[in-house]
Amino acid sequence: MTAQDFAIETPMKSRENEASETGQDIVVFSILRDSECSECGAELWKGNMLKMEKEKPLCLECADLDHLVFLPSGDMALTRRSRKYSKLSAVVVRFSRSRRRYERQGLLVEADALERAQKECLSDEDQRRIARERASTARERADQRYIEQFVEVVRSSYPGCPEAEAVAIARHACQKYSGRVGRSAAAKAFETEAIDLAVKAHVRHTHTDYDRLLSKGFDRSDARSAVARKLAAVIEQWRRS
């Protein structure tokens, strides 16, 4: 049986073998296909965990990892502390067919290490909550200031742009996690091209028939060509003081 039979690819196998030799993370796989332990012959069902050793699958018992308990990903403080207190730990990964990559599922740690970490997390939960809230507030203030600066740059480059529309442009372009132009490094440096793209996108959607043409089935490039003259006219008007 090869590694590919249960969705473990050669690059990950090599990394796992290297880890055992260099003292880095031990990697354990949550498998997608049924397999069996190459040493004891135990059946390993989909969702079971195994460790690759010399390109052969081992159940956790044969890999001497069966005394560890599984800690799912999600709580960073608990994970960090459990790993700190556990003399032996392993990273659990699973192959995502949709993303074509391995994704971390959690850790295998010693039970007493997990218990100690849980007690510590309970004892300072209030302090960590306050720290998270302060960090969140600081990020919100920074984002608001960035939006305000974006508005100022838009108004400077396009003095004829109404204040309300400049604000709308900035809020839309700078929306967090949107992947829009306002979140790019160029926009954060307030480069002219990035600002122009944000303004033109707003004008195209709000001052031309672009959206209506798209709804009628126009190809995007054809729709842009159709509204190019109207777009240029509004841009020219906004550039005037």
Structure description:
The protein has about 240 residues and is an alpha+beta fold. The chain folds into 2 domains: about 5-125, no CATH class; about 135-240, no CATH class. About 50% of the residues lie in helices and about 15% in strands. The protein has 9 helices and 8 strands. The strands form 2 sheets. Strands 5-4-1-7-8-6 form a 6-stranded mixed sheet. A two-stranded antiparallel sheet has the order 2-3. A hairpin with a 6-residue loop joins strand 2 (about 35) and strand 3. The radius of gyration is 27 Å and the shape is elongated. The chain starts with 9 loop residues before the first helix and ends with a helix.
Number of strands: 8
Counting DSSP H or I runs of 4 or more residues, the number of helices is 9
* Average pLDDT number: 83
Largest sheet: 6 strands, mixed
Helix content: 40-55%
Query: What is the rounded distance between the termini?
Result: 73 Å
Give a short overview.
With 241 residues, this protein is α+β, with helices and mostly antiparallel strands. 52% of the residues lie in helices and 17% in strands.
Fill in the keyword field for this structure.
alpha+beta, 241 residues, two-stranded antiparallel sheet, 6-stranded mixed β-sheet, 17% strand, 2 domains, disordered N terminus, 8 strands
Summarize the helices and strands and which ones pair or pack.
Layout: H1 10-22, E1 26-30, E2 35-36, E3 43-44, E4 49-53, E5 56-59, E6 68-72, H2 76-85, E7 90-96, E8 101-110, H3 111-123, H4 125-157, H5 163-173, H6 185-188, H7 192-206, H8 210-215, H9 220-239
Parallel strand pairs: 1-7
Antiparallel strand pairs: 1-4, 2-3, 4-5, 6-8, 7-8
Helix pairs in contact: 2-3, 4-5, 4-7, 7-9
